[in-house]
């Protein structure tokens, strides 16, 4: 007999004489003549209540083994439930133990700390919280593909291993097959990277943007969605060494078109997860972040405000606030400023644009004032920056000046310059940190808790 | 005015008084009173024919600049085409050069070798062949997500950086932030990996399977789709150091269920690409591989045959063939054997299962004969193996024996063993190399030509 997933059983429109469920015991309550067993198979938050009568052969022995964490296979009838809180329950005709859970099973009792659950990252998806997080993670990833594919964007796998550094800065991981203990040496005694696997120094990518630009200049509209890496030694709740990033790049699109795309994108993702992960989001709203749903509504319902960096600085200066980090024109905004703009001043998501040239990388398009560039950051309540992007410099001569000013050698970017030499076009793009968006839609506060197996300084378990 | 993509213009159901197209000049033919300009924007294979009358202001100067590779913006009318081969063409009212192409533009002439085009991987997506390849790549990736999401599978991002080695073998890339020239040393003089970023030796993953198993044992049905790495020094047309892999893992599924899933998967992908990339596939059938469409039909129309490894060896032995690599029970099959089975003996895709234990990794389920394991390979005509998978060993004691026999330390796999200790379940999965599947559906023969920027020994350009 074919297995039915618990999610599909809950969605049944009529009783069924015969159904097969397979999953893990979450809880069991025994009464005199029967037991309630909650079977969860991870297909949805809610388990299925199984009623096992004590008339079943081997009842005592079976129930003894059917502790929390045991895997079971249950045949029976799907019937309307008398109890509150569920439409259907299953009356067991057969009840098989597939695998017992050893008495040391760490998820037997509730109320473990998130820190402890990180240490058992291989088991935590069996908990309500992490089951919900990783179902939403899967759906959000799919919604990202849907959004772009429906709009004619092509998915590009930009390389993970790279010899170039998109930002001209960035702390990178080295990728190598050289013997660490005794690396080969050149005649002058330096390490001979010419004998490394790729015949040069190579690293893990920090962004696929430059490569995505080459594809946008051929296929018009493209996006990347892949892992990116930072070898920053920062142990915060918002940083991981390995995370996933989405980077659309659009030819013939200016900064304002880019803002429109970013706004549609954020709204689409929030609406999609709302629709497809309703039960999981309800759980987060109850147990993780009571303001979650109000915050998501906030994003869905209002058009994003737009304000130039110069205006934003004026607003901050005139606010009368005491800032932990005082801010003036030319400074980077800190989280406190970004959150003030979104949460208190505009009271909605806000896109800040035209940042000082000195704060931004070489590839952003220079404005006519010569002082600012066509950069944009989308700030949302509760999180701050969720998207950063720009219109790219498409003028070959200006790009060359910018590179020189940033101390970059043209020979390292010959192919990037070629895009401006052969049929250059105005084009724009942005990057969204996937985990940051996931934290935004779930309310989960630590990035370690939205990644299956997080990589952070000192930690690469599993 | 809003830009229309060429793809959407071709699909128009009626003429339009006003349309804006933006893209790159592919070809231009001049007659006495007008020019034909073919505009391609990468949204589809076929460009749009633009008719520019010589009465347009600055006609001569514009046409002088509108050489192959130049970017243009054209406003005009979409009208029924008189010419053969297209339904619509555009009569230009305005014609703007956005960016000229320098005279050195390497794609001006046709007939470049694939080798040369690899050297200009940043420009080759502007050619017919590579535009088609990367559109199909994008669609195939999306179809993979659709297939699994429609079936209730959750997408899991297994880690890229790992301290463990799935196969117990595999040549891996080291990931490190240690100073290559002067690494820190422990007291005994060895490299002190405790001071590396992750406080241990770490590598790029060769498979996400073991981590995916932990999620299947919580969410039931999961899949991965991400980059994987091999530091093998093999310069063949089928190997790359960085490639993408799909790995579904299903709880409560045995080897035969796994075969069913693999068969549906391959057929779904072929049918999807057929439907959504018809023009690109027609191009491949004409210019890349004349037998492509027959081969794809072959896969779609017939049920896959199944045959045990033992039967397969008998077939090969009785075939009367002279093999380059003679084969007997206990040997790995070579490409010539796999292709003989699929192309000549069964004349359809074939799933070979129950391989000798000695040929396979520690995690495969041992059969009652003690000699074979529940492994399977799906072989397709023209390619050979396209999928490899197995039912996993769910019995704790047998798994421990297998690990000991493979010389693996239990302490390195404590979390993997935990899955068998706490509610173990029969489960199965497989891996498909994304690029191999892409080569199968496009007929492109070299893996370097289906990856945006390929990473191979000695090569990590762009």
From TrEMBL, chains A, B:
* Catalyses which reaction(s): tRNA(Asn) + L-asparagine + ATP = L-asparaginyl-tRNA(Asn) + AMP + diphosphate + H(+)
One biological-process term from Gene Ontology?
asparaginyl-tRNA aminoacylation
Specify where it is mainly localized. cytoplasm
Query: Keywords assigned by UniProt?
Result: Aminoacyl-tRNA synthetase, ATP-binding, Cytoplasm, Ligase, Nucleotide-binding, Protein biosynthesis
Q: What is its EC number?
A: 6.1.1.22
Give one GO molecular function term.
ATP binding
**Family matches, as InterPro entries:** Aa-tRNA-synt_II, aa-tRNA-synth_II, aa-tRNA-synth_II/BPL/LPL, Asn-tRNA-ligase, Asp/Asn-tRNA-synth_IIb, NA-bd_OB-fold, NA-bd_OB_tRNA
Name one cellular component (GO) term: cytoplasm
Which residues does UniProt call coiled coil? none
Task: Give compartment(s).
Answer: Cytoplasm
Q: Where in this chain does the record put each Aminoacyl-transfer RNA synthetases class-II family profile domain?
A: 134-452
What is said about its interaction partners and assembly? Homodimer.
In terms of NCBIfam families, this protein maps to:
asnS, PRK03932.1
Family listed: Belongs to the class-II aminoacyl-tRNA synthetase family.
Protein's recorded name: Asparagine--tRNA ligase
Q: Gene of origin? A: asnS
